[in-house]
Amino acid sequence: RLSLGGVRDEAEIRGHRRTYIGAMPGKIIQSLRKAKSSNPVFCIDEVDKMSSDFRGDPASALLEVLDPEQNFAFNDHYLDLDYDLSRVMFITTANALHRIPLPLQDRMEIIELPGYTEEEKLEIANGYLLPRQLEAHGLNPEQLQISNGAVLEIIRSYTREAGVRNLERFLASICRKVAMEVVRNREKNQVIKVNQSSLNKYLGIPRYRFGQTDENAQTGVATGLAWSETGGSLLQIEAVIMPGKGELTITGKLGDVMQESARAAMSYVRSRAHEFRLPWDFYQKVDIHIHVPEGGIPKDGPSAGITIATAIASALLKIPVRHNVAMTGEITLRGRILPIGGLKEKLLAARRGGIELVLMPKENERELKEIPAKVTRSIHIQSIEHMDDVLKHALVLEDPDSLFAGPGPPETPCWFTEQKQQTEIHAPH
After folding, report:
1. What are the residues whose beta carbons fall under 8 Å from the beta carbon of 111, sequence distance 6 or more?
2. The one catalytic residue among 233, 261, 303, 314
3. Is 374 one of the catalytic residues?
4. Which of these, 90, 107, 175, 379, is most buried using a 10 Å CB contact count?
């Protein structure tokens, strides 16, 4: 096993030339020498955390190591001889794929490992993590009993991760405090039970707000689905309409891709103004502000496109968005819905948040086979191909088809009819 975290010298891979004082072979040759085998399983850990400087780029040196067309004659600078690495089975690990250079990715077969579900984390905690921490702190299962509800509360409100590293940390913290109580009270037979209500005593207040959907449908607020290295989460997107001159404001620490997605969503809504019974020049008379809460957290990606379009349409038409519906998908100017990534993590987040209906791109249907049956049974998943279908499912409408009925007087009051009525009321006589 070789860890490349923080490595920035190409000589760590290829070795130093013997003319240097203290020269040694590279880590690859050294590890093979320790293994005493020419065909071992070789794990290269943290391959995404290398860096480069004036001494060279270790990622470029790895190209020869991992390329089956070249590694049969790998040349170490110290040995100054070709060494056959073609019989070695290399396995690399990384947390973020985008940090690995594309030429290096091209030499690998990429296998993505999804995060654990809540049920899996609970089983791992009860079957492995908790017994290990009890033994490490000199406790036995009779002295400390942690309920399943308490473990789930730790998973939901104290950790935000795809794995179980922080979960084990918090279990260790509970064990330390319980061990201190046992020593202080000098009662070896004392039984301490930890449940949800007593969790604050050992771990303090919850660190994260458990992502739950709103209880009521709201106008201009749509629920999207996001995912990152730490797993999936619900993403609230807000849109408000104000009298103005056609400015579009986007806030919430959004990346370039997400801002472009918001502009594409706005263009779609403008192109459908005729069907929505909006004035053709409506965008010239209003300012639209789109905001994604939790502004301190950077957000990027195109998958919030349909959520932004839904929030804008809801605010303009004064029609609430169903609170139990979440959606994900990239939008085009013509309203087509393109596939997204991280489907499993997003569906897990929807299930945790009490979502009943998830709208997802039809092209992602094939990925549903890899989703646990518990998840697909607990929420209704609707595949969609066009933005019009999203609005029919997401907006609170008695007759969804009436939304695209064409020109004519609006059956439901939109932002412009409401503003006109207010102007007439306040007009001087």
Report:
1. none
2. 303
3. no
4. 175
- Output the pTM of the full model: 0.77
Residue ranges with strand state E in 128-200? 144-146, 192-194
Cα three-residue angle 228-217-383, rounded to 5 degrees: 55
pLDDT of the chain along its 429 residues, tens only? 888 888 888 888 888 888 888 888 888 999 998 988 888 999 999 898 888 777 778 888 888 889 888 888 888 888 888 888 999 999 999 988 888 989 989 999 999 887 788 888 999 999 999 999 999 998 888 888 899 999 999 988 888 888 899 999 999 999 999 988 888 887 767 788 898 888 988 998 888 776 566 777 888 999 999 887 777 888 889 999 998 888 999 998 888 999 999 999 999 998 888 888 888 888 888 899 999 988 778 888 899 999 999 999 999 989 999 989 999 999 999 999 999 988 888 888 888 888 899 999 999 999 888 888 888 888 999 999 999 999 999 998 887 777 766 555 544 455 555 555 555 545 544
Token pair 């094939």 is found at 366
- How is residue 362 written in tokens? 């039809």
CB–CB of 367/328 below 8 Å?
no
In the set 27, 121, 344, 346, the catalytic residue is 346
Q: Which domains does the chain have, with CATH numbers?
A: 2-106 (3.40.50.300), 118-203 (1.10.8.60), 221-425 (3.30.230.10)
